[in-house]
Request: fold
Amino acid sequence: QHVDGELSPQQVTFQLHSEGIRDIYLVSENPEAYPASDIAPGTKVAHRDQLDEVQRTLRETPGCSAIVFVQTCAAEKRRRRKRGLMKDPSKRVVINAAVCEGCGDCSVQSNCISVEPLETEMGRKRTINQSTCNKDYSCLKGFCPSFVTIEGGTLRKRAPVDIGDIGELPAPASVPSLDRPYNVAVGGVGGTGVLTIGALLGMAAHIEGKASMILDMSGLAQKGGAVLSHVRLSKNTADVTCSRIVTGTADLLIAADEVVAVAKETITLAESSRTYGVINTHLIPIADFIQNRDFDFQRGKVNRVLENALRKESAFLDFTKPAETLLGDSIATNMMMLGYAYQKGLL
Reply:
């Protein structure tokens, strides 16, 4: 992602070298792009596949060492490809569920959260989430006959869903008065548009002449990592003095992922007599699933924790399924939830 000023990977190696660090590795998926003449003296170049080996080597090396890891953010890759700013590989990977034995080696080889569980009559297998796959192809490193690669093909577009003539959507029966600051917590995983919801709410408030303050807590900002956005809305700027939602004062929790919703940073913002919840119950795999093929997601316990923390009128629905059915991409899930909250008079 773009940063202010010029600081290329090559320049980073020279900066580290000038600060006295001598054990420097530059790790990239395209190592041949960094010849020795362009990087600091003594800097070693390695392929991304050797990252674990490099880390283990430097772990045993005394003194200060550094790894310069060069790779475009997965979410940023997807943005650029959609805008035509980056080449979109013509090869796609799918898993034949009839052949898959659910061994989980593809998850171990790729460490990728786009390899998701697929519950079948024959037990848990694997599937590739085509909406989130960034065509890294590292899942192909394992030896598995269930993987099928398609060259030049595109995803089949779903047939239009016949929803009949629903006419004009009715306006919400009521909306928050904003006589006092209205607090909205938005949680989910990185790369799925969580921060976009906060940006849309802030712009909508601006257009209507209302005040808004937004605080994005994106952590490591990694694809699949936890993301939390604090959105505070009010009629007057003077009423919103800080951007952070105080513990137990959220009026609405929009959670695209249940695991993020029950995380301490999120659930402590809720109060059972005050906070409405709009929760997506679609299963999104977490990091432990990559290493443990039979991981128990304990969805029942997660649901109970949320039900106890939120108002009884809260909504627990699989918003991903209608998003994929109507719009063809799970990336629309958060927009579906935003619209639902509006129709319910919560925004």
User: Anything to note?
Assistant: The longest strand covers residues 226-234. The first helix runs from residue 9 to 18. The mean pLDDT is 86.
